[in-house]
From TrEMBL:
Keywords: Cell outer membrane, Membrane, Signal, Transmembrane, Transmembrane beta strand, Transport. PROSITE patterns: TONB_DEPENDENT_REC_3. Residues 122-232 form the TonB-dependent receptor plug domain. Residues 1-30 form the signal peptide. This is SusC/RagA family TonB-linked outer membrane protein. SUPFAM superfamilies: Carboxypeptidase regulatory domain-like, Porins. InterPro entries: Beta-barrel_TonB_sf (IPR036942), CarboxyPept-like_regulatory (IPR008969), Plug_dom (IPR012910), Plug_dom_sf (IPR037066), TonB-dep_OMP_SusC/RagA (IPR023996), TonB-dep_OMP_SusC/RagA_CS (IPR023997), TonB-dep_rcpt-like (IPR039426).
């Protein structure tokens, strides 16, 4: 009767769970069993815990409030497990209600962490591998995962120099190892490299990320050879689990505004500055004053003022919606995710949209074979004309925005023609599109399932293909006063292939454990670009849509091909989980080098001692939960050179000869070098991991030293050789530093808990050698014994005062000085201020950084507060530097003062054009402490949504970049501030403050 009823029910519903009901007939009538799971150490409920009926494929996971529902019978056994917790079996009681507490692993030593080409138990890791806290990944609403990492991992510097929507921050691990090459770490997603494919971290939806590990020390990174010299970031995305399909929705929406507005002077104050500027420079004002230009005079006379910053700014709006579906059986699992991000920036025209779709699948067709995919498609849209913050900040409040016909003026401060209308670019409609189509898959063959003597032997094939097309279309016409018209179409694309053959073998015998990993891999990337430009159009109607209509047309194209081959072998050995050893060697060959030195070999060695497993530690087991000492040494490489740079190249040009157009080949001034070798970095790391007092206090401390040598630098050549320069292996750089991570559980109660995480890092970077002759490079600011990236300038000691000039104090010191000029130190005492009086004043990279996270939990509420600090950085301040030099032609920030005979400032110079004749850069302390993130979340009671079929719901509010403590004068000490006339000076963008409200729902 029961079987007949089940079959009848299955046919009537026609649902997939009929398979489940049939499977459960051996257990009798399946009922809905409900339960809750808590952490034994904190008393808080735990989400994403797997609950499985023993002996079947029926499983589920706990929701956001730690509750679950599963089909089972009283007397069945439930297996409850999760990474980081001891597995537990529970018999379903007659009442059908299950309440379980899980005990965390001691210091999570048995937790698996991702390392290069595999995973290891945390207790067996010999290198410096940092894991990003999962709370940072799941509870901080960010558009880019690197924003969640910022300040959360020691000696991983994430700099958000640009807050432009869609821009990715820069990342640096343990300092800069190369003089000229990029310092960005190597990025690997699900085993397939994202770096060097033209892909971006922005291509990876943060909602899809399961874990992030960062390899920092020589042993950990050497496994990636030439790719590991700047550290390696391993990202693992979410995958399906067996059990009932789960639909999850994560979404948030909020507003953004400028974190700090660099307010300009008022109209009244500007008039005073105009008057002082005219007086001290013997100049005149327009029509007798009080302003300098015609348009200013018209508006001043009519009482019209404009807030130009307000004109280009708006309230930013951000929203993100993510829907994922996951589930499967024991032999087929899937994870599908779709994401939509829409961000309207705080400056007009700065818009960003991202559409992404991911599918991760895992299939096990036989006992010995597993296959799967990790593929995604993402589209980026940054269309639109953008207002200029640089131009807006320069505008006088009396400047004229519109012409009489309602069109935007070209020069709002006419007759001043240096500064254009900041709103003009918003009349344009450029297209900025980029896509990434990545199709990645794997096949895993377990030989032990085929032939028992081969137990432990596995082969894995990783294959990846990435297609990244980029399209940029632009047109300038009458709206920006280009009456001839100019259109340009730029199309580029790259296609990247990755193929990895990985062989692994694992064997345990007695107290001994050994595993081997072997790799043979190849990569290639083909890139091409075509640019078509047209000038002088009959009208603006079609914009770039018909470049053939232009009177002048120009087409150019270029392409290149990169290829590499790699072999790697790694052996891990451990004895009794006490003594651990790792040896790795990798050989890389890349097409950027010539045949004489195409390959590089990169070995490493590491050892670790789990001291807490020693018998002599038994007396302190109640105090010491974990104590491990690590040491590693290794060599990694860096290509640090573009494609074809080792060759002597020629350029094609067109010349007229005998009335005909002929093609000529011209030899480039850079000579090839067949013997050019890889840059290399040797490194030594030692560290201690610890856990005390039932892991109420835990953490790690690492000390390291790296020496990079054989730098790839351009060396000047005598002109008689016929060449101007050549790439040579010259220069040495060292980095020494310390990483510290400290975790504390300050209060652990049933209803309340408080935990703290502190990360601290200090790095000292130093140039050891430049060209091998003991000489320095003044032009590039490369000084032996000093860091890469320094401020080399005069030393300011004050401002020259009138009484000093009258008394002749400047004689034999600075003959060119006048009252109000910058007073500079005569360091060598020769009675002159010249280049010999410059010195290294500081470094542009911070000397140390730290982050402090406090997490408070009260019942269903969680409050997370994160503060980070960056100290010891020095930057030239362009706001101060250009204030007086361009005072007569622009507005200035209200924070900047100026010297006058009445205001005898010893800090601010006068408005004279001669007050800074030596070009002092006004370096300023760029240190800051920032209240980076505050997030308050609430796990809603389960019974609230039962009728809606919602298994869990979390609501949260979050604020980002809430407040900054700094002495920096400018928009922000971290944000770039590009001066007029420099490349991309139209891309200045302020730091933004964000407030969002979000929901996470599980169905």
């Amino acid at each position: 009767m029961l079987t007949h009823y089940c079959n009848k029910y299955a046919k009537s519903t026609l649902l997939l769970n009929s398979l489940f009901l049939i499977a459960m007939t051996s257990y009798g009538q399946a009922t809905s069993i409900k339960g809750n799971i808590r952490d034994a150490s904190t008393g808080k409920t735990i989400s994403n815990i797997t609950v499985k009926v023993k002996g079947s494929s029926v499983s589920t996971q706990t929701n956001t409030v730690g509750s679950f529902t599963i089909q089972a019978n009283p007397g069945n056994t439930l297996i409850i497990s999760s990474v980081g917790y001891q597995e537990k079996e529970v018999i379903v009681p007659q009442g059908g209600i299950v309440d379980v507490t899980l005990v965390p692993f001691e210091n999570v030593l048995d937790e698996l962490v991702v390392v290069g080409y595999g995973t290891q138990k945390r207790s067996d890791v010999t290198g410096s591998v940092a894991s990003v806290p999962k709370d940072r990944l799941s509870k901080i609403p960010v558009t880019n995962v690197m924003q969640a990492i910022q300040g959360a991992v020691s000696n991983v510097t994430v700099s958000q120099a640009s807050s432009i929507p869609g821009d990715a921050p820069s990342v640096q691990v343990r300092g800069k190892n190369s003089i000229t090459a990029t310092s960005e770490p190597y990025l690997v997603v699900d085993g397939i490299p994202l770096s060097r494919t033209d892909g971006s971290i922005n291509d990876i939806n943060p909602n899809d990320i399961e874990s992030v590990e960062i390899l920092k020390d020589p042993s950990a990174v050497a496994i990636y050879g030439v790719n590991g010299s700047n550290g390696v970031i391993l990202i693992t995305t979410k995958r399906g689990t067996s059990g009932t399909p789960r639909i999850r929705y994560s979404g948030y929406g909020g507003v953004e505004n400028v974190a700090h507005i660099l307010k300009p002077v008022s109209g009244e104050e500007l008039l005073k500055r105009y008057a002082e500027y005219a007086r001290i420079n013997n100049g005149t004002l327009y029509n007798g004053g009080p302003v300098r230009n015609q348009f200013e005079f018209d508006n001043y006379t009519n009482g019209v003022t404009t807030d130009w910053l307000d004109a280009v700014m708006q309230t930013g709006v951000i929203q993100n919606h993510n829907v994922s579906l996951s589930g499967g059986s024991e032999n087929a699992k899937y994870f599908v995710s779709g994401d939509y991000l829409d961000q309207k920036g705080v400056l007009l025209g700065y818009n960003y949209k991202r559409y992404s779709f991911r599918t991760n699948t895992d299939f096990k067709p036989t006992k010995y074979l597993s296959v799967g995919t990790s593929s995604f498609i993402v589209a980026h849209n940054k269309d639109g004309g953008r207002a200029s913050l640089l131009q807006a900040a320069a505008m006088s409040p009396y400047a004229k925005m519109y012409n009489d016909d309602g069109s935007l003026t070209q020069f709002p401060m006419y007759s001043e023609q240096l500064w254009t209308n900041p709103l003009l670019p918003t009349t344009l409609n450029p297209e900025r599109r980029q896509f990434n189509i990545s199709l990645n898959g794997y096949a895993d063959l377990n030989f032990g399932e085929l032939y028992k003597p081969l137990v432990g032997l596995k082969y894995k094939l990783n294959a990846g293909y990435s297609y990244v097309p980029v399209r940029n279309n632009e047109y300038e016409g009458e709206s920006v006063y280009n009456f001839a018209g100019m259109g340009r179409i730029t199309n580029s694309e790259s296609q990247s292939y990755t193929l990895e053959n990985i062989l692994t073998y694992t064997k345990d015998f007695g107290k001994h454990h050994i595993d081997f990993t072997g790799l043979y891999a190849s990569k290639s990337k083909y890139w091409q670009q075509a640019i078509a430009t047209g000038e002088v159009f009959p009208n603006d109607a079609l914009e770039w849509g018909n470049l053939g209509a232009a009177t002048t047309q120009k087409v150019s194209s270029q392409a290149d091909l990169y290829r590499s081959i790699s072999q790697m072998g790694r052996i891990n050995y451990s004895y009794d989980s006490r003594y651990l050893f790792t040896a790795t060697v990798r050989r890389d060959g890349a097409s950027v080098f010539s045949k004489n030195s195409k390959y590089g070999v990169f070995p490493s060695f590491a050892a670790a001692w789990n001291i807490h497993n020693e018998s002599f530690m038994s007396g302190v087991k109640d105090v010491v939960d974990n104590l491990k000492w690590r040491i590693s040494y290794g060599i990694s490489g860096n290509e640090a050179i573009g494609i074809y740079q080792t060759l002597s190249l020629m350029d094609a040009s067109t010349i007229a000869l005998n009335g005909l157009s002929n093609t000529a080949l011209n030899i480039r001034t850079r000579m090839g070098n067949d013997n050019l070798e890889w840059e290399k970095t040797k490194g030594l790391n030692t560290g201690i991991d610890f856990g005390l007092f039932k892991n109420r206090l835990s953490g790690s401390i690492d000390m390291y030293k790296t020496n990079s040598y054989d730098m790839l630098l351009l060396q000047r050549l005598p002109r008689l050789t016929g060449f101007a320069e050549v790439f040579s292996n010259l220069g040495k750089v060292s980095n020494t530093g310390i990483d510290l991570t400290l975790n504390t559980k300050n209060i652990v109660k049933n209803d309340f808990n408080w935990s703290t995480t502190l990360v601290y890092s200090r790095n000292k970077n130093k140039i050891v050698e430049v060209y091998g002759d003991g000489k320095e490079d003044l032009g590039n600011r490369w000084f032996i014994g000093h860091p890469l990236g320094v401020i080399y300038d005069f030393t300011k000691v004050g401002i020259w005062q009138e009484d000093e000039i009258k008394a002749g104090a400047n004689k034999g010191w600075d003959e060119r000085a006048e009252a109000g000029s910058v007073k500079l130190a005569d360091l060598n005492g020769d009675g002159l201020i010249n280049e010999d009086d410059r010195s290294v004043l500081g470094q542009t990279a911070p000397k140390w950084t730290a982050g402090l996270t406090n997490t408070f939990g009260y019942k269903a509420f969680t409050l997370n507060v994160f503060i980070n600090t960056v100290q010891g950085a020095l930057r030239n301040n362009p706001q101060i530097g250009s204030a007086a030099d361009e005072m007569g032609r622009k507005s200035t920030p209200a924070e900047l003062g100026y010297w006058t005979p009445e205001n005898k400032s010893n800090e601010w110079r006068s408005l004279s054009n001669r007050s800074n004749v030596y070009g002092y850069g006004f370096p300023s302390n760029a240190s800051f402490t920032r209240l980076k993130d505050v997030t308050l979340s609430y796990n809603m009671p389960q019974h609230t949504f039962n009728k809606l079929g919602i298994n869990g719901a979390t609501i949260y509010v979050s604020g980002r970049n809430l407040y900054t403590w700094t002495n920096w004068i400018g928009w922000d000490p971290e944000a770039r501030d590009i001066t007029r006339g420099s490349a991309n000076d139209n891309l200045n963008y302020p730091m933004v403050r964000t407030y969002v409200l979000g929901f996470n729902l599980t169905f």
